[in-house]
TrEMBL record:
<feature type="domain" description="Stalled ribosome sensor GCN1-like HEAT repeats region">
    <location>
        <begin position="587"/>
        <end position="697"/>
    </location>
</feature>
<dbReference type="GO" id="GO:0036159">
    <property type="term" value="P:inner dynein arm assembly"/>
</dbReference>
<dbReference type="Pfam" id="PF25757">
    <property type="entry name" value="TPR_DNAAF5"/>
</dbReference>
<keyword id="KW-0677">Repeat</keyword>
<dbReference type="InterPro" id="IPR052623">
    <property type="entry name" value="DAAF5"/>
</dbReference>
<feature type="domain" description="Dynein axonemal assembly factor 5 TPR repeats">
    <location>
        <begin position="1"/>
        <end position="206"/>
    </location>
</feature>
<feature type="domain" description="Dynein axonemal assembly factor 5 HEAT-repeat">
    <location>
        <begin position="217"/>
        <end position="413"/>
    </location>
</feature>
<dbReference type="Pfam" id="PF24573">
    <property type="entry name" value="HEAT_DAAF5"/>
</dbReference>
<dbReference type="InterPro" id="IPR056497">
    <property type="entry name" value="HEAT_DAAF5"/>
</dbReference>
<feature type="repeat" description="HEAT">
    <location>
        <begin position="627"/>
        <end position="665"/>
    </location>
</feature>
<dbReference type="GO" id="GO:0036158">
    <property type="term" value="P:outer dynein arm assembly"/>
</dbReference>
<dbReference type="GO" id="GO:0045505">
    <property type="term" value="F:dynein intermediate chain binding"/>
</dbReference>
<dbReference type="Pfam" id="PF23271">
    <property type="entry name" value="HEAT_GCN1"/>
</dbReference>
<protein>
    <recommendedName>
        <fullName>Dynein axonemal assembly factor 5</fullName>
    </recommendedName>
</protein>
<dbReference type="InterPro" id="IPR057546">
    <property type="entry name" value="HEAT_GCN1"/>
</dbReference>
<dbReference type="InterPro" id="IPR021133">
    <property type="entry name" value="HEAT_type_2"/>
</dbReference>
<dbReference type="GO" id="GO:0003341">
    <property type="term" value="P:cilium movement"/>
</dbReference>
Length: 743
């Protein structure tokens, strides 16, 4: 031993050969094994040699030194503890060696050094062993499991270090290797059983009365023993701060294993986690902002356990406040994410009494429409889905609040996928109430929904979410909205006044145009809109068709004209009603024919055409004579589509002339009309020539002689007199026929 100590125990090792150093350490290890406790007098020499050889550059020498350390500690435990501390530093330098077998040997040696030492160095090695929990080598992780399990069972001062050692063993219960998981679980059961036996007097009452699982215990999960649970409960206060720190570690592996450990701890703590609820929620909120999905998923599983074991009255008091006033401005959705998970773990009988409180909070404007981020809306929708799944038919009592949330989510959503999910949730809400379709659900709550919108209608702008809610409600309710036309009109009369925000009016007028095109299936499904159609036309549409300066005002006029055309086409107004308002309707409608917007002119032409088709034969001659000059102007329009519709309207104008229209009294009007049409009979476009010819043929019945003279006057001036000849021929055929007898 003096020779070995001189050659290997000094500051500089004198043996340069790696093979000789390895053989010498093997001989020393064999000497320890053979001599046993007789090695005690050479404690100093052994310690000096091991301190140097454990950090030897040669990996095999390191391994052999670690094995020798373990044997020596077991052989002379009565003396080893006096200098065991001197080996901690070299072992910690070796425990992160690049060779996995060296790391395993170093961990095993560390176990022996701590076990047979003074026990004061646990704090020095715990952090190093914790890093080995994320080692790529399963053998290294297994070595940590065995060493820590042995400490928890046999370390003399283990009670002082339970809070340090428990996480190391419990973390490996979730290891990806089945062998390590089973070994960790088996060691943990032994630790719990031993502690239970050692503290039998202190937990006598619990042994007698708390062996049966609590109600609503997670199905398919084996309940840990009482000793295991008590160990976690008594150390949870010390473990939570460490979890809080490690769950935001810069290493992904650390965050994942920490989030797994949190679930294990909460499963053991059961209802005792209530007293640590605030810091636990803080941990979950932080972890849910992680970019790693595994971390988030593990924490949500832990949140479900909180919902299972913590009374709803307790966690809702804290969590609803966090939802209302999020701690993180940059991540306001985290309280909703955690709340949905906690509600998912809460048993239905316990959650039912608090259902109204939860839904009332979610439906508050400050919550459901405060943020427009997709992730926030997803979590809001997740809360609704959890309530529908957990409470099922019990959601009937809070159906209105849930419907408000779903309508708001759809209003704010910019993602089609999120909108589809909200619609699916709406269908589930119908199903749990025994309703066949969302339309029936809207019928039940339409009165309250209208009141909900009316509260703020006077202050609506283009930025108001309520206009989008209105769109969702009236489009999804289908024919049901026809039962509440009176309430709808109250809203429209307030938000579509000329002085209101232009962009907001455009949006609502466009929505109404779509509804009016399908009036029998929407607003007029019950025939009630006819009672309001004149008021809608005179008090809403016509004021918005009055000319005002600006492009936005022009766009509003276009939307109003579109709505007018839809009203006429959809059958939501009768011919008799059109006749009653014709005097008010004509000026703004004919003025719209002069709009700068091609679309506005086109819609105005179609509106005139539709009115002539509906009531042309009933119009007063003066009204008819006010129409045709404006249509003639559109024959020179830059848009071929506008010209075509104007020609169609002129054809309907001739068709609608009745006995009250006297050709002799209105000869000047007819002359102007014929002259302008004959000009376009020579249009460069042959299709226009054909249409004009057909219109003039219709006009030939009104005043044949006038048309004949006007045609003959321009025949020779036109590039191609063919159309004039055909027109003259048609006039001769009309005048040669005997007049139809009057009855």
């Amino acid at each position: 031993m003096p020779c070995l100590a001189q050659r290997f125990g000094d500051k500089d090792i004198l043996e340069p050969s790696e093979e000789l150093r390895l053989s010498t350490l093997e001989m020393l290890s064999l000497t320890v094994e053979v001599c046993g406790k007789h090695m005690a007098p050479y404690l100093n020499e052994m310690m000096n040699i091991l301190q140097r050889s454990i950090v030897d550059p040669f990996p095999d020498v390191k391994r052999e030194s670690c094995k020798c350390t373990t044997r020596f500690a077991k052989c002379v435990p009565e003396h080893f503890h006096m200098q065991a501390e001197s080996l901690v530093k070299p072992l910690m330098q070796t425990v992160s060696h690049q060779h996995s077998r060296v790391r395993v040997s170093a961990i095993e040696a560390t176990g022996a050094v701590i076990q047979y030492g003074t026990g004061k160095n646990v704090n020095d090695v715990v952090s190093h062993l914790a890093q080995r929990l994320f080692d790529d080598s399963p053998q290294v992780r297994k070595a940590v499991t065995v060493v820590v399990g042995h400490w928890l069972l046999h370390l003399p001062d283990r009670y002082s270090y339970f809070h340090k050692l428990l996480p190391l063993l419990l973390t490996n219960i979730g290891d990806e290797i089945p062998e390590i998981r089973l070994q960790a679980a088996d060691l943990w059961r032994q630790v719990g059983a031993q502690w239970e036996k050692e503290n039998e007097d202190d937990i006598k009452d619990k042994l007698d009365f708390l062996l049966t699982p609590p109600p609503f215990y997670p199905s398919g999960v084996e309940r840990p023993g009482l000793g295991c649970r008590e160990l976690v409960v008594r150390n949870l206060g010390r473990l939570v701060p460490a979890i809080t720190h490690d769950v935001t570690d810069w290493l992904v592996a650390t965050r994942i294993r920490t989030s797994q450990l949190l679930s294990v701890l909460l499963l053991h703590a059961e209802d005792h986690s209530t007293q640590h609820l605030q810091p636990l929620l803080t941990v979950l909120y932080r972890a849910c902002t992680d970019t790693e999905k595994d971390v988030v998923n593990n924490c949500l599983e832990a949140a479900k356990l909180l919902g299972t074991f913590v009374p709803p009255a307790v966690f809702l008091k804290l969590m609803l406040g966090h939802v209302t006033y999020p701690c993180s401005v940059s991540h306001p959705w985290t309280p909703l994410m955690v709340l949905s998970a906690v509600l998912g773990g809460c048993p239905k009988p316990l959650l039912k009494p608090h259902l109204e409180e939860v839904t009332n909070t979610l439906a508050q404007p400050d919550i459901c429409q405060q943020y427009q981020q997709v992730v926030y809306l997803e979590q809001l929708l997740a809360c609704v889905d959890v309530l529908l799944h957990q409470c099922d038919s019990e959601c009937s009592s809070v159906s209105l609040q849930l419907l408000k949330v779903l309508v708001t989510v759809q209003s704010l959503s910019t993602e089609p996928e999120l909108t589809e999910r909200a619609i699916v949730s709406l269908q589930v809400l119908c199903k749990v109430q025994g309703l066949d379709s969302p339309q029936q659900l809207y019928r039940v709550h339409m009165e309250q929904l209208m009141d909900w919108l009316c509260t703020s209608v006077n202050s609506w702008t283009s930025y108001s979410l309520e206009r989008l809610k209105l769109h969702i409600i009236v489009t999804q309710s289908g024919p049901v909205i026809g039962e509440f036309v009176g309430r709808l009109m109250q809203i429209l009369l307030k938000c579509l006044q000329p002085e209101k925000d232009h962009e907001m009016k455009m949006s609502i007028l466009t929505m109404m145009a779509k509804l009016l095109l399908e009036a029998p299936h929407t607003v007029d499904s019950q025939g009630l809109f006819l009672e309001h159609s004149e008021k809608f036309l005179c008090d809403i549409l016509l004021p918005n068709m009055v000319w005002r300066a600006g492009r936005t005002a022009a766009a509003v006029r276009t939307a109003a004209i579109s709505c007018l055309l839809a009203l006429l086409h959809g059958g939501a107004i009768t011919p008799a009603q059109v006749l009653r308002v014709e005097v008010k309707l004509s000026p703004p409608m004919l003025s719209a024919l002069e709009e700068d917007s091609q679309m506005a002119r086109l819609l105005a032409c179609r509106s005139v055409s539709t009115i002539l088709r509906l009531v042309g034969s009933s119009l007063h001659p003066d009204a008819l004579n006010r129409i045709y000059p404006e249509l003639l102007k559109r024959l020179d329009d830059s848009s071929e589509e506008v010209r075509a519709v104007a020609l169609e309207a002129l054809g309907l104008w001739f068709t609608g002339l009745n006995q009250d229209y006297s050709p002799d009294l209105c000869v000047s009007h007819l002359q102007l009309l014929f002259q302008q049409l004959l000009l376009h009979l020579d249009d460069p476009d042959s299709a226009v020539q054909d249409r004009v010819l057909e219109i003039l043929k219709k006009g030939s019945v009104v005043h044949p002689s006038l048309l004949k003279s006007e045609t003959e006057a321009v025949r020779d001036k036109q590039r191609s007199p063919g159309h004039c000849d055909r027109l003259l021929q048609h006039i001769r055929s009309v005048t040669s026929q005997p007049p139809t007898p009057q009855t």
